[in-house]
């Protein structure tokens, strides 16, 4: 399984210190899962951003053979994170597929589970 990328969108109102903090918290939570490797990915420019508006984006790449089997644990971590962090959204990308979660609704979280379980 290739990398799964977690993209945290803090919006324009959040500063880089906040983004570093919540990205680090999510990284620490994911690193507790045995068999996963988590690394920070440098942020890219945000497509469609209005000029003069700086979007705060944090990215983590997660890989490892345990990712598919740990999908339920990752699902719970993301659900708690989105409630706790106050991020505008978190997008999880796996290849060409992606799921964007804007709230910890059951439907959005279940889509994450399907994405991670899909080999």
Strand content: 25-35%
Average pLDDT: 81
- Largest beta-sheet characterization: 5 strands, antiparallel
Low-confidence stretches: 49-54
Give the spatial strand order of the biggest sheet: 2-3-1-4-5
Helix count equals: 3
Distance between the termini: 7 Å
Measured as a percent range, the helix fraction is 25-40%
Please state the structural category.
alpha+beta
**What spatial form do the alpha-carbon principal axes imply?**
globular
The strand count comes to 5
Order of helices and strands: EHEEHEEH
- Rg estimate, integer Å: 14 Å
Describe this structure in words.
The chain is α+β, with helices and mostly antiparallel strands and 119 residues long. It is built from three helices and five strands. The chain has a five-stranded antiparallel beta sheet, with helices on one face. A hairpin with a 2-residue loop joins β4 (89-94) and β5 (97-101). It starts with a strand and ends with a helix.
What attributes does this structure have?
119 residues, alpha+beta, 3 helices
Quick recap:
With 119 residues, the chain is an alpha+beta fold. Helix content is 36%, strand content 27%.
Write the layout of secondary structure elements.
Layout: E1 4-11, H1 16-31, E2 37-41, E3 56-63, H2 71-85, E4 89-94, E5 97-101, H3 106-117
Antiparallel strand pairs: 1-3, 1-4, 2-3, 4-5
């Amino acid at each position: 399984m290739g990398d799964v990328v977690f993209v945290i969108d803090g919006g324009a109102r959040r500063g880089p210190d906040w983004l570093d903090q919540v990205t680090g918290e999510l990284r620490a939570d994911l690193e507790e899962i045995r068999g996963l490797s988590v690394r920070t990915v440098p942020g890219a420019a945000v497509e469609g951003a209005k000029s003069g508006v700086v979007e705060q984006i944090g990215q983590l790449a997660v890989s490892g053979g345990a990712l598919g089997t740990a999908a339920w644990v990752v699902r719970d971590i993301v659900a708690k994170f989105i409630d706790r962090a106050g991020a505008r959204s978190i997008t999880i990308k796996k290849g060409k597929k992606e799921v964007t979660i804007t709230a910890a609704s059951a439907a959005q979280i279940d889509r994450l589970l399907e994405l991670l379980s899909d080999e």
